[in-house]
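[[Per-residue structure]]
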Amino acid sequence: MTRFWRTLAVAAALNMMAAGVAAAQTVLVRNAPAGETVEVVLNGAPVTSGPVSAEGVAKLSFSLPAEWLASGMDSRVYVDNCERIRRVLVIERNQVVPAAQDGCNRTEITGLYLVRRENTLVVNVAGALPTLLMVKGNFSLKPPSPAPAAPKGLIVYGGGGFSSFADEIGRACGNVTECGGDDAVSIWTGGVSYWITTWLALDGSYLKPSKPTAQGGGSGLEFNSDIDANVFQGGVKIGVPFSRLRIYGTGGVNFHSATTTTTQTLSGATQTIVVDSEGLGWQVGGGIEVWATKWFGLYAEVSKVALEGDALDKTKGEFKDSLSVAMLGGRIRLF
């Protein structure tokens, strides 16, 4: 039972603290002479005061009367300019406005303002007529940091995704009717780009797809086939930057090195055939990159990679296929 009442008391205390925080309003006076005093008057009664900093800012907190906490208070706002004192008056619209003290010049900030929980009243006293900005929550005088622009320079990247060989199963199966497999495989990449300008880059990369497979048989024949490919790419990127985002197209040539392995069993006899090939092809694609900071970004890219070449053993013909690639990854700017 003691633990229950202790828990209840802590919960009540936290609730009161939360209510106190939620009820807090702030007056932030800016562009006031350093060393002056700012005073806040609520419905005719002074509630808080404080000095103006060397930056010309005074930040003061106060609380609305309890009857206005839930709905907020419709208020008129005035600023008195006195000797060494700036007085901000927040007056409920049905209350009588107290007279200005001798030697003070009063200005009403035109309008009716609903002052609610967690409001910040930003009063700018620069110039002859003060102005008021009403915001919910805190208000920072620091200008927002500009979004990092899509950078120039040397950028390394890496990523992974999915790819599909266009003709691996058909080429492996030939005229065997009972044949199938999986030519949609995972793929990863690594590369480097050098952006000469924000719209033109030289690019080099390495692609490594996992092995597509095919298997089939019939009339005493069974076989399976796979291909182990390595692709090296070089080309250019042409981009259009939009602040931290850059949309780009890419194109160029590639060099592939592939090993096709087929294992077949016919009438109990097993044979393995290995064909190595290499050659030059082309690739084209496009993508989008977004820079979270000036040093790190994310990208998504799709491309078509044509693989063309001859078998190193000239008696075994040519190799011709293509990859459709979809990739996600990250980029790091080195300099």
Notes: Residues 1-23 have pLDDT under 50 and may be disordered. The longest strand covers residues 269-291.
